[in-house]
Structure prediction request, 489 residues.
Amino acid sequence: MLGFPIGDRPLLEILSKETIEEIHVASLRVLEETGIIVDSENAFKIFIDMGADVDKDKKMVYIPEHLVKEALKRTPSTVKLYGRNKKPSMILSKNKVHYNPGSSALYMLDRKTGEMRRPLSKDFGEFVRLVDAMENIHAQSTSMVVSDVPEATADRYRLYIVLKNSTKPVVTGAFTIEGVHDMKKMLETVVGGEKELRKYPLAIFDVCPSSPLEWSEITAQNLIDCVNYGIPIEVITAPQIGGTSPATLTGTLVQLNAEILSGIVLAQMIKPGTPTVYGGSPCVLDMRTGTGRLAAIEAVMTCCAYAQMGKYYGLPTQGYLGISDAKIVDAQAGLEASMGLILGALAGINNISGPGMLGSENCQSFEKLVIDNEICGYALRLIRGIQVNEETLALDVIEKVGPGGHFLAQKHTRKWFKIEEYIPSQVIDTLSERSWLERGAKDIVQRAKEKVDEILKEHEPEPLPPDIEKELDKIALEILKKHGVTKLP
Prediction:
């Protein structure tokens, strides 16, 4: 159903109020009766200290309803992220929509060969510069796992590359326990110290429980450390529908909701008021091939539905959408990206992760990113809705022009076409057939390649001050030296 809760702005609602409440009650039952596995001794102790029932031998924690209710009361309804200039850049609240590239791709689509390959630091630096220039992509993400540094340092080095090449806030996360500490140090260096980072958070960290119903030692400790450092977190669970969660969408929503609520409880028990985002990355297990389909319509529906759960609790929301299961930039990629990015916007998801991603969240494409940037522009225009007031009704100008006239010369037109229309870049073909042929009859992928080349040639992100850049380089090199690398890639 489509509702209009904010003026004329559309909002997609998949779940009824009654269904939301049923899922909520069922999730509480799962937490209290089925329980969750907690592999972290530190997290396990926190749950014990706060009064949760436990089975130490099985590492099981059973969370009572009153702890969930108390945690939800303590969780802020708004999370703010700041750019390097310390001005608010993303306000995750209500139905405000923002986009960032999906994270942690192991591969990239080579622009010259069209083949998937492991990215190098240089490749990721170019991708970050490209994101920096995208007007409809509001945040960076540690989008690629670079292959020319030791694997144990990859979580930190990709953040280093982002901080060197963009002023936008960052959606990131750690693969290791020590990663959070080093990444915090990098962020403090850029913003001016620990107090400044707490006041003007430049990054939000993803912390991901494992489906079904388990917190690993690394992820639980990452959550604990982020909370203690005052770093905002996104609790993101990734159930595989039919594999690591029930085959029914409702059953998956129950489990997903329980997993996210367990993380919210842990965070708020450590430090009440911790900025926390309700998120996820569900996929459908394809029973024919054994692959996970992140772009399946059921995965998109699940994202939009759990966003309703997050809004029911008054929390900021996140979703992995705009991803394609295709391996190249083709019609399937466009279909799946459009579906996810537009429906996610209509659902009012605050932080949508996925532009640029192919191969079921495993590959980043420069060309797809610039195409997705246009899709995001369309989606943002859509949710802005249609203004209705005396000036937009245009009765005066209609009367002035009258039957048989035209509106091109009117002052009203000169003002309002700039406000009403989303004007895409030349990546989107709007030429006449003759002009299109004269300019080489290029398809959208060719135009996207040209746009990428143009941006990388002309766009120079705002550099870090020399002293800060030097200190950031020093931190990155110290991390690499611990693993036998003596020079920054």
